[in-house]
Amino acid sequence: AQKVTQAQTEISVVEKEDVTLDCVYETRDTTYYLFWYKQPPSGELVFLIRRNSFDEQNEISGRYSWNFQKSTSSFNFTITASQVVDSAVYFCALKRGSNYKLTFGKGTLLTVNP
Amino acid sequence: DVKVTQSSRYLVKRTGEKVFLECVQDMDHENMFWYRQDPGLGLRLIYFSYDVKMKEKGDIPEGYSVSREKKERFSLILESASTNQTSMYLCASSLMKGGRGNQPQHFGDGTRLSIL
């Protein structure tokens, strides 16, 4: 069975702090895909990034970076110099290679205070 | 950009009513999904469709049905609404023919449904 665990239910930081959101996944598949989504207070889930199981290269996009480590089954998300606009619920999700469904974690509520 | 449009942001209905939630996507995606989101439970898949007139049950299909008569439109139907169906409903679509590949699901803005 597949499972995604986001152990941090809520995180609160002050603007300009760096923050890391943890994601640990479980799967027996050798081919799988990982995703991060952002859900601001308006409600829409916004796709941020995907990573294939065979590609452990880390990625940086502006203030966002992602660290994928198969050895620890983790796909962590770091926001550098956080801003108030980063306040949202962030979801990590897992997809099997040949399956339609996404398995979501419960989400982490990030609050960035001015 | 992909656009997934849900017909209502907020909806209030009464117990026992038949409720229709509509979702339209403009990117010719094969797959469409309906989720509900509840505090502490995260996102749970209700139904999905991988082609016109095709549907598959998700994790919590009880009390719901779906309809996909056209590729761009996927409707969620609450046959007889109950208070425990008060929730946030999210529609999504994706370009993953046969379920393979890493194409992400793209979501609509959500419908906050209240059943009184």
Could you please describe the fold and organization of this structure?
The complex is a heterodimer of chains A (114) and B (116). With 114 residues, chain A is an all-beta fold. Chain A has no helices and twelve strands. In chain A, the strands form three sheets. In chain A, strands 2, 5, 6, 10, 11 and 12 form a six-stranded mixed β-sheet that branches. A four-stranded antiparallel β-sheet of chain A has the order 3-9-8-7, with no helix packed on it. In chain A, β8 and β9 form a beta hairpin. Chain A is globular, with a radius of gyration of 14 Å. Helices cover 0% and strands 55% of the residues of chain B. In chain B, β4 and β5 form a beta hairpin. In chain B, 35% of the residues are buried. Classes of the chains: A mainly beta (114), B mainly beta (116). At the A-B interface, β5 and β6 of A face β5, β9 and β10 of B.
Annotate the secondary structure layout.
The complex is a heterodimer of chains A (114) and B (116).
Chain A: E1 3-5, E2 10-14, E3 19-21, E4 24-26, E5 32-39, E6 46-52, E7 59-61, E8 64-69, E9 74-79, E10 88-96, E11 102-104, E12 108-113
Parallel strand pairs in A: 2-12
Antiparallel strand pairs in A: 1-4, 3-9, 5-6, 5-10, 7-8, 8-9, 10-11, 10-12
Chain B: E1 4-6, E2 10-13, E3 19-25, E4 31-38, E5 42-51, E6 54-57, E7 64-70, E8 73-78, E9 87-94, E10 106-107, E11 111-115
Parallel strand pairs in B: 2-11
Antiparallel strand pairs in B: 1-3, 3-8, 4-5, 4-9, 5-6, 7-8, 9-10, 9-11
